[in-house]
Amino acid sequence: MTIDPLHVTSRVTRHFLSAILENNMVNFCAVVGCSKRSDRDNGVSFFRVPAEILHQGQRTCELSRKRRLLWLARIHRVDLKFAKFTQICTKHFVTGKPASLYD
């Protein structure tokens, strides 16, 4: 399925979709002191801070909450306002990627 940005009604939404489809969005690592960026550092992947998972059982909710809080604590950012969009680069993971929730 392809999305044609010209058929989207909102100009802002159209611009946002165009940027995504053209892959023009730049990712930055949120860890203090890290300067990795997707537009200049080839081979670097970025991972969003995991969300708290609700409505899938108490254990999953607790694990996902602890995991999210751990990620946010390790970033060492007191100025962080938009954690939903915050990303961490591969440099900060032992295996180059985050573990799954139940690992």
From TrEMBL:
Record-linked InterPro entries: THAP_Znf (IPR006612)
Q: Which species is this record about?
A: Amphimedon queenslandica
Q: What is this protein called?
A: THAP-type domain-containing protein
* UniProt keywords, alphabetically: DNA-binding, Metal-binding, Zinc, Zinc-finger
**Occurrences of domain THAP-type (ranges):** 25-103
GO terms for molecular function, please? DNA binding; zinc ion binding
**Pfam families the UniProt entry points to:** THAP (PF05485)
